[in-house]
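Please predict the structure of the following assembly.
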Amino acid sequence: MRTATAATAAVVEPGRGGATSTRRGPTRRGSSAARGQGLWGWLFVSPMVVILGLFLALPVVMALWVSLLNWDGQSNPFSGAADFVGLRNYQDLFTHDGLTRTLFMTSLRNNLYYVLLVVPLQTGLALALALAVNRRRLKGKGLFRTAFYFPSVTSSIAVSTVFLFLFQSSGAVNSLLKWVGIKGPNWFTDARGLVWVVLGGLGLVDPAAPPAALADHGALGLSWWDWLSGPSIAMCTIIFLVVWTTSGTFMLMFLAALQDIPEAQLESARLDGANGRQVLRHVIVPALRPVLFLVITLGLIGTWQVFDQVYVMSQGAPANTTLTPAFLSYGVSFKDAQYGTGAAISFVLLAIILLMTGLQRLLLRERDAGGARVALTRRVRARVRTQRQAQDQAGRAGR
Amino acid sequence: MNTPTPLRRKRSRTPRLLGTLLLAVVALVFLLPFVIQLATTFKTDPQAAASPLSLIPHPFTLASYRQLFGGGSDAVPFPTWLGNSVLVTVVVTVGRVFFDSLAGYALARLRFPGRGLLTVGLISVMAVPGVVLMIPKFLVVQYLGIYDTYTAMIVPLLVDAVGVFIMKQFFESVPQEIEEAARVDGAGVFRTYWSVILPMAKPALITLTVLSFQGTWNEFTHFVVTTQSADHATLTTGLVQFVSGGLGSGTQYPLKLTAALLATVPVAVVFFVFQRHFVRGGSTGALKE
């Protein structure tokens, strides 16, 4: 019996198609092997279905419901005891004058600064490190890679603790700055915006007194001054920490792509007379483009979720300049017991992140087409080259 | 074949040496925080405050370590945190490796109705960012009546979508013939999975083990929203309470940094043991979070 079913399965095999095939064949075919597999299949996936369903899918649905309520966390949110307010929680975040909107907009602004600084910095640093570490004749390659990647392995909480120590007002960083004659700021309590500190340092603006035109007018509950003053010095501390911890991971992704470039291709480019810069431009950069997109979009997705570091290092202080939507959502829910608002913030955040993912998809699709094109021209070029070489050889032999 | 490129030959060695030197400085900057941390754990409070940069503790003291483990009047419940972290991490890692590989195997190799739908569901679940789930997860955990229990800490982490996906990808790369041979020899579905295919999946299983060990050990937000009492504090949640002033008073930086260091050591050890998997091997793709 067993062997018979095995044989049936083997016969059925060709029809199985790729592993991603979603055609429902087995029940139709009605072979006992397939029916057995159906049972086993569901048995095998049941832990996954139960746990992901219970703690991933269900929470999303529940929170979607809660975001439509005015719920304090006490009453039963499903019995109608909590006020149903519809989309008001969402609306309040954007249009209703009040503390909620001010805080939400402040958090959005802070996170925007954070994204605009962290993503280019970590991508650039990771790329530079990968290129540096990928040199063929570099001694101690492994050691360097380990050093750069190590911060990525540790927990955000532990490294945040270390940075708390390093960046205290009389800490290691400020001691170092004192050596070179700079008086370091109070990193965790300085709420001044970086742009204005720099402009003030250059004597261009008075950082203490914002120009009236900027301070008096605004958008979405914040003055232009609020929007434009740049990330606070406290936020810069978190940015340092994050760039330092994440660039190692991204370096590895770049490195993998660099090592995927066939050695022969680099060699032949050099044989064709390309210098270092030309090799970089025509061989290395095209090969890195897909990873570059990936790293940037992963960065965009990740940077909208900053929470741990804020929780440990600043709790949103000073003057809410390190408040981020994720932390605000947490605080509004657990400290102020406004779960409806907290859930609404979560979903706005989800929308932002999905937008980033969508952007990635769009760019990746273009990348695929572009990648195919590059590969094609590469192949053509390679064929031309081998033909030319063959001709050369033939010519030489003929002579 | 491997012709040395003439261009490279001609260049003098000085720029390359300078480049390596520069790289060494950058590497030092990357490691310096850890070195300072390590040095500070052997310092006294006043010394850590007075010379935060010095790398040689003088006087050298083990007081921080003793205080973390030895109790005393102002003790930090470090052993409790450590115990909780070990318990949760071990159970979650074992469970994850088993359940993820089970589900991955079924999705890659077994044919059953609904498989396509489940795969689509899995991929869409992977797109949900963790931070968005904080409040929702708290709601469900509370609704189920398991708030502030080990159940709430462990069970939701037992399966992770990314792990299932890694396993699925791996199982799809295993040649079908091996499975068929096992079936012909009379092995049932579970037997084929357990004694034939799973042992072949060692590289993927190691990747998954390392990832889930590291992930669970360093997990923070999940424990923040599912626990409350000091009895259930892990190294991450306990450390945060301690650092942000809930427990210890004053600066106590040597003690805080020692606790942080000890929380880092296990992942560091795992990292160095499985370094090949992280830094070189083909598993880099699996490291995307």
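Residues 374 and 380 of chain A are 10 Å apart (CA to CA). The beta strands of chain A are 69-70, 83-84, 218-219, 222-223.
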